[in-house]
Amino acid sequence: MSRPALSNTLARRLFLDRHGLGRTPPRALPEVIDQIGFVQVDSIATVERAHHMILSARSKPYRPKHLAPLLERHRALFEHWTHDASVIPTRFFPYWRLRFARDAQDLMAKWRLWRRDGFEEKFDAVLDRIREHGPCGSREVGADEARSSGGWWDWHPSKTALEFLWRTGRLSVCHRQNFQKVYDLTERVIPAEHLDAEPTEAETINWACASALARLGFATSGEIAKFWDLITPDEAKTWCAEAADLIEIDIEGADGTPRRVYARPDVMAEAEAAPPPPSGIRVLSPFDPALRDRNRAERLFGFHYRIEIFVPEAKRRYGYYVFPVLEGDRLIGRIDMKRDRPDGALIVTAFWPEARTKMGAGRLDRLDGELHRVARFSGCDCVTYLDGWQRW
Fold first, then answer.
1. Angle of CA points 237, 32, 203, to nearest 5°
2. What are the tens digits of pLDDT across the range 83-139?
3. What is the dihedral of CA 285, 290, 292, 296, to 10 degrees?
4. 261: Cβ contacts below 8 Å, ≥ 6 apart
């Protein structure tokens, strides 16, 4: 008996809808974050920081000032690790306990290999300092310890202790100051109703798999494990094999190749019912959750994307920090741009359309309209196109 098959068009539509990029009515910011699951936090701000770009692509009224109150005052979000540092709905906090426990074992062994000796000896001093004097950052601890240039490989011992205590759940980020993490005791940050809940390992695995699949729409067991990065690939594989309410279907890739994945039995109807995404153009962050799994995005959209931050300039194909561009359900190109604060301008250096994407007058107008939206969002007064920016 052949498996049900979902066309590439419907697969893209369902995936974008689940990731908050479909044609949906305006929603409150907590609902947007809850839908996509988490928002990666990153410091690079060639235009605006990644987390703000991610949310702006899904909510035109969004401004960077809207996020901090959810984190720092209402405690509706907490900051921790998925595949990278992210802001996450606080109601999911109990499921991070499994990661805390596993990291307590794994990180201790790994960090001893590359850290200077003695960071674990700083745990009590760091905890006592915060307990007695309140929240602090890495600059307020270890005053008598040698400081480095700031590379993650050479943190001073007390800084390492802070990070370890955060990664293992004893400390939490209460806010950021000049984008530097400020830590407090977890019991003073996480509301009691979430702090006191302690799901079992089996409950956490079930939640991690079910909630990941809900946000992906369809996925392999590896993609399910990768979504939150809370559980192992083997745990996700076992969950998929044993779940009674899953089916296997074929998803058509952008190149026509089918790929077998897991989904809920109603996935075909859900895909048919998903609204088509807006026809306009949207600039996405390189860390957008729809693109985080680069291999999945390439299979689904036929869009090969890699960040070239760590590629030597002479070897870069595009640029230091290039933004993917979405039109409807297609990724149509990438753009190199930056904010010029002194001049109040969004500077467009280059736009590279994908193959078979024609840049006619209508598409150029839509791109210009989106760039002016991004300019306003990032505090710029105008868009400036440099000579030679059209790379087609």
1. 35
2. 999 999 999 999 999 999 999 988 887 777 765 567 788 899 999 999 999 999 988
3. -140
4. 218, 219, 220, 223, 248, 249, 250, 251
50: β partners: none
CA angle, corner 377, sides to 374 and 383, nearest 5? 45
pTM tops 0.85, yes or no: yes
**Both tokens of residue 325?**
């561009």
Question: Can you give the length of the chain in residues?
Answer: 392
Which pLDDT belongs to residue 362? 97
Cα–Cα separations (whole angstroms), residue 180 to 86, 128, 154, 172:
14, 21, 17, 13
Sheet holding 345-353, edge to edge: 281-283, 322-327, 330-340, 345-353, 382-385
What pLDDT score does 126 carry? 93
Query: Which of 31, 87, 91 is closest to 59 using CA atoms?
Result: 31
Q: Report the DSSP pairing between strands 5-6 and 171-177.
A: unpaired
